Amino acid sequence: MPPELTDRLARPSGGFAMLAVDQREALRAMLHERLGRPVGDAEVTDFKVAAARALTPHASAVLVDKQFGWDAVTAAGAVAPSCALIAAADHFVAGADEFVADSVIDETLDPAELRAQGAVALKLLVIWRPDGDADKRVALVDDFVRRCRGHGLASIVEPVSRAPLAGGGFDADAGILAAARELGSLGADIYKTEVPTHGHGTDSEITERSRELDDAIDGHWVVLSSGVPAERFPETVQLACRAGASGFLAGRAVWASVVGSPDLESDLRDVAVPALQRMVRAVDDTVSP
């Protein structure tokens, strides 16, 4: 993929400071927990539009899902001109006790149309399980990367480490590295990974495991914030970037604390924006142009 596409997702520092608002049923569940009542689709969408309007002036790119966000966010002109658009190209398959038990390419999406609407990149979530079908995962990523290239879009692949369907013992960190070794050299323009130890390890542990990820991944890679304590995330971004990462693509560490706020606009401005700015500084201070 021409480097100018990934350049459009980056900051002048060369690092990626990308915001995610593509959460779907997980976001509905967060709103339900905070509000104590059922939450309709419109409320999920309204949060995404408000978050995009407040936060995208400070992000290099924003990831939005078609199901609840894309049409409303783009129609409202909620994304700052300086912020590139990423469309989620995944269809989530729910499980008995998981919002996302599996993920496939959403065949209802038209990449050409998304590009015409301003998309620079597409993102695909891949569920990695130790007892999953590796050939199927590789084929899925190969197909996704090929489709993106065919439509002049950058590709972002996001494997997440999950417990085996068969049950039993599970080492999430081992899964993060195994996923990178399996899928990190298949040609994706950006590889999005969980933070080693989900931020609960020591600085040296996170650094060493990030170096292992860097060895396994060809090209740019960034970290996500799910599972990482929000106050710890900027530090883990810096640790990962010193080990070879190029930034972050994250949502919860930015805006989770203001979900369900009775004064959302103010809390986005006063709480979420400073949180995002701290993460941006962590990238700019660490990634060399």
UniProtKB/TrEMBL annotation:
Q: GO molecular-function annotation terms?
A: 6-deoxy-6-sulfofructose-1-phosphate aldolase activity
Keyword Lyase applies: yes
Please provide the record's keywords in A-Z order.
Lyase
What GO terms in the biological process aspect are recorded for it?
6-sulfoquinovose(1-) catabolic process
Question: In terms of domain of life, where is this protein from?
Answer: Bacteria
Q: Does the keyword Lyase apply?
A: yes
Which residue ranges does UniProt annotate as crossing the membrane?
A: none
Family (UniProt) = Belongs to the aldolase LacD family.
**Record's PANTHER family?**
SULFOFRUCTOSEPHOSPHATE ALDOLASE
Q: What is this protein called?
A: Sulfofructosephosphate aldolase
Instruction: Give the organism, scientific name.
Output: Haloactinopolyspora alba
Kindly list the organism's lineage.
Answer: Bacteria, Bacillati, Actinomycetota, Actinomycetes, Jiangellales
